[in-house]
Design brief:
Layout lengths: L6 H12 L5 H11 L1 H8 L12 H26 L8 H20 L23 H25 L4
Length: 161
């Protein structure tokens, strides 16, 4: 299913580790951009849903795009929501976007047979099913819980709560 929320677990941990230097909003936007190709494939009933966008080269291209459009969009959302936050820098936008797209390729490579994450250097997907799918989902949820707890602790310590 495109736009899976499980990817956000990794994003929460990246946000916890990077703090103001990683944008969680841009990370989330990058997840959506990554899954436009599979969504179109589902609509068109294509046999391969995870093509060029789900390679390291595709992740780099989408990550740059996500960072460039994500910073102004996320800054506007934060301003309108009046949520206390640090100034959203380009560094945080690029970190969130690239962590988002590259982790997306890594996580999807563990579960989707139609991927070739190393293309054009190598064909195939040697990461497929090295972790059982249910374990992968549990791991993503646990990463999200840990990341969320650490972000909440940091926010409390820095006076954002």
């Amino acid at each position: 299913m495109p736009f899976t929320p499980f990817h956000l677990g990794a994003g929460a941990l990246f946000k916890a580790a990077g703090g103001r230097h990683v944008s969680f909003l841009v990370f989330g936007g990058a997840q959506v951009l990554m899954d436009i190709e599979p969504l179109i494939g589902i609509i068109q009933n294509k046999p391969v849903l995870h093509g060029y966008t789900h390679t390291l080269a595709g992740a780099l291209a989408i990550g740059v795009l996500a960072a460039l459009i994500g910073r102004p969009l996320s800054a506007a959302v934060l301003r309108m929501s009046q949520v206390p936050h640090y100034y959203l820098t380009w560094r945080a936008s690029f970190a969130g976007a690239l962590l988002g797209t590259f982790s997306h390729v890594g996580l999807d490579a563990l579960m989707h047979h139609d991927m070739a994450p190393w293309w054009p250097f190598f064909a195939g997907n040697d990461l497929l099913r090295i972790i059982p799918l249910d374990v992968l989902h549990i791991l993503c949820v646990m990463l999200g819980a840990l990341g969320g707890a650490l972000v909440a602790l940091r926010a409390q310590r820095e006076g954002f709560v």
